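Hi everyone, sorry if this is the wrong subforum. Our group has a chain we'd like a structural model of before ordering constructs, and none of us has done structure prediction before. Sequence below.
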Amino acid sequence: MTDNNTKKEAPPKRPQCAFFIYKQEVYQQVKDANPGKKMTDITKIISEQYKQLPKDKIDQYEQKYKDSKAIFEKEKKVYEDKYGKIKNERKKKKDDTKATKKPQNKKQKKQESEEDESSEDDD
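Answer:
Right subforum, don't worry. Here is the predicted structure as tokens:
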């Protein structure tokens, strides 16, 4: 049980995958070499560079990810032992927005338009 006066700390953050570790290391350099490019274009350039890396370099980034993941798993266990299972807040937020969004698929749009037409016929 947790004490009501104890503030719940933030859960540990998931580790970045190998590509994002690489991206973080080279982003500024690539951005400086490509002034005026959008972030998405810079990311595409970095992605191509990453794909061209020798296997041993990619393995180094994969190992960094595995090391980070091992640390994360330990921190996660400690956190969950103390506060309970980590809730995935992103899923919850997405579900909240679905309730307020208008239907997007064709079937739902068709049903809505048929309902609108039938209500206009009642006049």
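For your construct planning: The helical segments are 18-33, 39-52, 55-83, 89-100, 106-121. The two ends are 62 Å apart (CA to CA).
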